[in-house]
Amino acid sequence: MSTTSKARPPGGAIRRQQTRTAYLFLAVPLLFFLIVRFLPTLMALRMSLFDWNILKDTQPFVGLENYTRLAQDERFLTALKNTAVYTLIGVPVQIALGLAVAVMLSRVTALRGLYRALYFAPYVTPIVAAAWVWQWLFSPQFGPVNTFLTWLHLPAQGFLTSPSQALGTTAALVVWQNLGFQIVLFLAGLAAIPRTYFEAAEIDGATGAQAFRRITLPLLNPTIVFSVVTGTIAYLQLFTQVVNLNFTDQGGPLSSTTTVALYIYQLAFGRFQMGYASAVTVMLFAIILLITVIQLKFLTRRYDA
Amino acid sequence: MKHLVTLALALTVTASAAPVTLTYWQYDYASKVSTMNDLIKQFEAQNPDIKIKQETFPYDAYNQKVASSVPAGQGPDVVNLFYGWLPQYVDSGYLQPLPAKDFPTAAIERDFVPMIKTSKIGGKYYALPTSVRTLAVFYNKDLFKASGVLTPPRTWEEFIAASQKIVKGAPPRFTQLGFGIQPDGQDYHMLREVLVRQYGGSPYSADGKQVTYDSAAGLKAMTFYTELYTKYKLGTPNFFPGNNSYRDAFIAGKVGMIIDGSFAVATIQKGAKFNWGVLNLPTFSGSSVRSNFGSYWVNGITKNAKGDKLDAAVKFLKFLTSADTQRTWLKNVGEIPAGKKLSSDATLRRDPVYGPFVAALPFAHSTLFVDEAGQRKAWVDAINSVILQGATPASALKRAAADEQKLLNEYYK
């Protein structure tokens, strides 16, 4: 026992002070987080138990009524289904495309900067502007995409105006916008893999495909996990693109592009039903939390290098 | 002590002599804001003891902004609202009823056009408009001539015939439309308040609590409207990309006719580079039943205005609804006067642009919305289910009626 105190390095006091300072500095952002992030979350949780309409004088307590109402709310179920479809299309496509482009980009040397800039441009373009351009591109009447289809003697498509195609077109916009960020992530991941592994594989006679499957993919696992988790969360919160692609009938046509986040917005700020909107928010929070925990548990692997 | 009393007295005297400051809110629309600035100057000159502070917010955020100021007890003393929001705002106790001695109900109903009765809630008026809007047909005279349409349509049958001569292309690719069909524009109002009534029905019960368009008349109306797309192929929704698809396309000279409100006059006047005109909404041949959809923005006094402020707010509201202000508003903003006397003025009725809108005032109905966004969605979805998914007009109508009745029940429970 006495050895521990003897073993303590001479700078113990300084270290203790440094630790204290670290805690102090950590406490500032923590406090910010508690007030700006956690407190509103808890307030939403509380609000969801009330029939909280900001246009009413009294906000009666209704217990779990808002939640039981959710189960029969057709619009909520549609929004939930759409959100799931967006995520299931968007995340895999964006990761596959991002990885493919990143692998190719990591091989070129000429004009590398230009290519990177071009792929990254959509990510930094304001979403609203991109949505408006997209609306024009896919216009059934005047859009270049349909003009192109008619050149190929294919029938013109409704795209954003068709209830069966609008969601896919919206998802395509989101993938296109996120692709640049995805590519940058994978480029960083690829750069972090030591060249020696590939050299060794080559000496052992491995093909390119084998090297990709046995070396690149496993060592990119942390990047892929990060992409899947953050991508999933982003898709589950999809909002701005949907709102701006059909401004007069948001989430339309016929609720075919509506998302849970948009539904929350419409309930809260279009119809002032804060209590019910909070219940939807809490549900969305629970869903995101659950999915993230599952993803982290099953996707994260450790490889011995 | 004596000094303190004198000081307190002096303060009270200055306080009562100091002008009352009222805050006025409306949404940000260039011609409305500048006209209001002029009007405020005029009002302040007449009432040196009252100061008005105008604050404006973007249209998209306006309703939210007003609503979020409610629980905080902040915001304006006099506020400009869409009449369709009134039930919710009255319900919240946010607006106070107009003092009966200053605004007697009988006088209001004598002086204003009939549609403003939708602002009477529980037997009391809570707000009054300066101007009102109705619907009419805007038509492109040059396209009419080029397509060989010699006389502008007066009946729906002629409306269809004229449109068919103008339209070019077929679904889904049109290059020119006969009629700028747009369910989520003004069309769903036209269907609900004009077509249903022209077929002899009525969209709602007299107290507004029951949906009554799920009827033979309603079915005929829904069938007629959706056939403009499905059968006659006069045009397509969202012809142009953007927020105001049908209006933008009309201004670009690509559409023969659109149905729009008088509030669109200024925009069309400014944008259209061709000869255009305004027509009354058509009737059915062999029938003389006219109807129109009327809407308006009202000015109300919030619960924030008490005592001196209330007196000042009453004065300001009287000023805002006066004949002089209505005249200024027509001249500078282009919206038609809400007063019966002014809107029946012969020169205004003969005006080629404003005439058709003014002529519709006596038979214009306005819907009492309890949840404007929700009620609109019910109709737009019903129409879209027919034209985009091939549902029958009957099932679409049932669906709209069920959706909307649910919202009415929620409000009136």
TrEMBL record, chain A:
Task: Identify the main location.
Answer: membrane
Localization recorded for this chain is: Cell membrane
Its record classes its membrane topology as:
Multi-pass membrane protein
Membrane-crossing ranges are 21-39, 84-105, 117-137, 179-198, 219-238, 276-299
Top-rank taxon of the source lineage equals: Bacteria
Q: Which InterPro entries match?
A: ABC_transporter_permease (IPR051393), MetI-like (IPR000515), MetI-like_sf (IPR035906)
What residues does the ABC transmembrane type-1 domain cover? 80-295
What keywords are annotated for this sequence in UniProt?
A: Cell membrane, Membrane, Transmembrane, Transmembrane helix, Transport
PROSITE patterns, sorted = ABC_TM1
Any one Pfam family match given in the protein's UniProt record, by short name? BPD_transp_1
PANTHER family membership: ABC TRANSPORTER PERMEASE PROTEIN (PTHR30193), INNER MEMBRANE ABC TRANSPORTER PERMEASE PROTEIN YCJO (PTHR30193:SF37)
| Membership in a protein family | Belongs to the binding-protein-dependent transport system permease family.
Protein name as it appears in the record: Sugar ABC transporter permease
Which organism does this record belong to?
A: Deinococcus radiotolerans
From TrEMBL, chain B:
| Keywords from the named record | Signal, Transport
First and last residue of the signal peptide: 1-17
Q: Which CDD domains match?
A: PBP2_XBP1_like
Is this entry keyworded Nucleotide-binding?
no
At the top level, the lineage of the source is Bacteria
Pfam families assigned to the protein according to its UniProt record, in alphabetical order: SBP_bac_1
Quote the InterPro entries the UniProt record gives: SBP (IPR006059)
UniProt family annotation: Belongs to the bacterial solute-binding protein 1 family.
Recorded protein name is Sugar ABC transporter substrate-binding protein
